[in-house]
Amino acid sequence: MITAEELKRRVEHSPAFILDMPQVHANLQPLQRIRQASDCRVLYSMKALPLGPLLADLKKRVDGVSVSSLFEARLAHAVLGGQGSLHLTSPGLRSEEFAELGRLCTHISFNSLSQYQRLHASGDGYSKGLRVNPKLSFADDERYDPCRAHSKLGVDVALLQTALPAGIEGLHIHTVFGQTDFQPLQAVIAKLKPFLLRQSGLKWLNLGGGYLYHSISDLNPIIDTIRYLKAHVAEQVFLEPGKALVGNAGYLLTTVLDRFESDGKTVLVLDSSVNHHPEIFEYQRQPLLLDEHKRGCRTAILAGSTCLAGDIFGEYRFDTLPAAGDKMIFADVGAYSLIKAQRFNGYALPTLYLYRDDAVTLLKEDEYADYSRQWLG
After folding, report:
1. CATH for 4-19+248-376?
2. What 3-state class would DSSP assign to 271?
3. Which of 8, 106, 258, 276 could pair with 327 as two cysteines, CB 3.0-4.6 Å apart?
């Protein structure tokens, strides 16, 4: 794996987003073991990072892609070339788009009974499913909780106790995010067991994402669960990791533009912004800084370069305070960062780099033409 110092030396532009493909491949290894042991299928959830070279690489390593919209479906279909599975679930399906979605996708999990009743007859060629809400919550932050009260995500399983609507061939279940053990999955399957056994003979079951497989040492619980489901409930079981593949494979390189004192604390202004990783501001999350020294005697507030007062990455510790011109690297920013990034204040998006085969390759530099095209047409 490439080191932070190597990235600083080999990446010319700042700010820059770097995707570490060897790390993506390492993250795939536990999923490959699960697939081999259980004969399940692995989909990449492209909402985490729909980068073209990444999709092209994963095409050869996973069984398909999961998407949430028409644009994602078009992009995934173009990359896959009609090979592999293409799964879709979304609360926002539009009637005028559905015929095309039906042609592009191999599997569609309807988010509600009304959505299914309204749309399923307007497309064909795909396998019909329902997203089910088991009404079990595992997230401390309800903004991440698909099973929160009054959830918009999935059909309350209590509404399906008698039978599934005619034509339904599969079910989609997604309940967690960022989990580092399989206890939630086991609890969900235990609760749903009577319901699932009544649906025995389903063509497929999609267990969704939300598990960080590379951080889970014992894979036997999910292997055993999948084997049980394949034996008693569905012909095929799908997993759809997103952050599990790319989260710890993404880096944000940034440069200090200014250093000054403010009310007794040092502020370092960076050439990046929380607008390049909006979840920092949205969820008040402090990203991992590779240059921090946890026991350092000096502290500094790392701030973005926009006029938003809350454009703050957090307060970090250092042995020696960085100065203007010094580069720093945030890690674990591969998922839900670049896809949500925007150009507030007219600042360019991070330049894109790909690291693989011991080479750091420039993919795209955000230029004024991109900004003007967005606003002037």
Report:
1. 2.40.37.10
2. coil
3. 8
- In what helix (H) or strand (E) does residue 203 lie, and over which residues does it extend? strand 202-206
Q: Would you state the structure tokens that stand for residue 93, as one six-digit string? A: 């399906």
299: Cα within 13 Å, side-chain hemisphere = 9
pLDDT of residue 349: 98
The domain defined by 39-241 folds into: TIM Barrel (3.20.20)
Question: Mean pLDDT in each 10-residue stretch from start to end of the chain (377 residues)?
Answer: 92 98 98 98 98 96 98 96 94 96 97 96 89 94 92 94 90 95 96 93 96 97 98 98 98 98 98 96 93 96 97 98 98 97 97 97 97 94
Catalytic residue among 105, 147, 297, 307: 307
Look up 105 and say whether it is catalytic: no
Global pTM reads 0.96
CB 53 within 8 A of CB 354: yes
Let me know: does 19 contact 51? Beta carbons within 8 Å.
yes
- What does DSSP assign to residue 269? E
